[in-house]
Amino acid sequence: MISVDVKTTEPQTVAFLTMRGPYSQMPEAMGRLYGWAAQHGIRPTGMPSGVYMTDPATVGEDRAVWEVRAPLADDPPDATPDASGCGIKHVESTLVAYTMYKGPYEQIAATYEDMLAWMGANGYSMAGPSEELYLSDPSTTAPSEYLTEIRIPVARP
Question: Is-above-0.90 flag for pTM?
């Protein structure tokens, strides 16, 4: 069984890019987002994340809607997505159930199932889209060593 806990995240300002379709686009999406930030003189800080607006088990990965985010060092104003699809927004603090996952991204689904079971057993319900905070650089880390913090917004009914 996995270890799950609950915490309140810190509010943050992020650059973001909303994507549709397969998650195999993640490297390209991260490149687009970080390239956009560099072109606009915006300084990312911290680790990137992915936020999953749809459940691939329900809609299929080909119709998935997801977002990549880069936390920003400064506090620039919100900016609606431009022609590149990138923008800036403020993300409020959120109560989340969270756990650490170690391993390839393709095998992360079982951890979500375990988290949802833990949430139900502990009186929590899902209150928003899940987020994965990527703590490893895939260009320098073996997939078996990837570290990902999974966060699921929660509420008590």
Answer: yes
